[in-house]
Amino acid sequence: MIYDTLINLIVVLLLTIGVFFMLSGTIGFARFPDFYSRMHATGKCDTLGEGLMLVALIIYEVAYTGVCEGPLKNALLVGVKMLFLIMFILLANPTSTHAIAKAAYDVGLEPWRKPDETIAWLDTGRGEGDDEDGGETS
Amino acid sequence: MTGAELFGIIDMQNVFLVMAVLIVMASLVSLYRGIEGPGIFNRIVAVNVIGTKTIVLLVLIGFIYGRPDFFDIALVYAILNFIMTIAATRY
């Protein structure tokens, strides 16, 4: 019984951390001003969140054999299948992120299509820099 | 399911259901960026992100309903998502 509780606690903890990473990556994807910063937010958080959630589900599947009923009652087959899924995600998701960023760079954009927001964001930084310059001159 | 999977009071199927609902909400936020986002690349990234979330959602649905068919669908969806992204960036 304490074994079941420990397994369930580990599974719930990994699932919660994975969902937290996915939600934070999505919030960064919706809120960041630039295209490359959005890529920076999504490219890592989705891979890590998905990996953590699938690891949690593999632990749950292997710990309780017989979750999946039907002709495929072998739980180890499902675990190996999801391990293949994790390995493929770890290979493919950074590759696709790199391909998108490389294509956007080859099209030719320092910031993509949003110079107004980026320049306004840089202007606030320059305002703070002017204060630092004033401090240097004084 | 078999084994009852009770963590204290909470049923594990309900935990999976809550995680699936949170992933659907994150996917809706990504869909806003896919519709509203300027340029073609934001939309490609939005499709990639929604596809990545859909893989986990398919696996969670397979765990909620206890059907192992959804894992094959998740594998095929991952491969299709990767090929579609590469093809969209190589046009």
Keywords:
heterodimer; A: 138 residues; mainly alpha; 2 domains; 4 helices; elongated; disordered C terminus; B: 91 residues; two-stranded antiparallel ribbon; 3 helices; 2 strands; flat
Description:
The complex is a heterodimer of chains A (about 140) and B (about 90). Chain A has about 140 residues and is an all-alpha fold. Chain A folds into two domains: about 1-105; about 115-138. Chain A is built from four helices and no strands. Chain A has helices at about 1-30, 35-65, 75-105, 115-135. In chain A, α1 runs antiparallel to α2 (about 35-65) and α2 runs antiparallel to α3. A two-stranded antiparallel ribbon of chain B has the order 1-2. The mean pLDDT of chain B is about 85. In chain B, α1 packs antiparallel against α2 (about 40-65). With about 90 residues, chain B is mainly alpha-helical. In chain B, a hairpin with a 2-residue loop joins β1 and β2 (about 10). Chain B is flat and about 50 Å long.
SSE pattern of chain B: EEHHH
Widest beta sheet: strand line-up of chain B: 1-2
Largest sheet of chain A: none
Please state the average pLDDT score of chain B: 84
The outline of chain A comes out as elongated
Question: Low-confidence segments of chain A, ≥5 residues, pLDDT <50?
Answer: 124-138
Largest interface, chains and sizes: A-B, 57 and 52 residues
Tally of separate helices of chain A? 4
Structural class of chain B: mainly alpha
Main β-sheet of chain B: number of strands, strand sense, barrel status? 2 strands, antiparallel
H and E order of chain A: HHHH
Strand content of chain A: under 5%
Number of strands of chain A: 0
The count of DSSP E runs of length 2 or more, i.e. the number of strands of chain B, is: 2
Strand fraction of chain B equals under 5%
- The secondary-structure class of chain A comes to mainly alpha
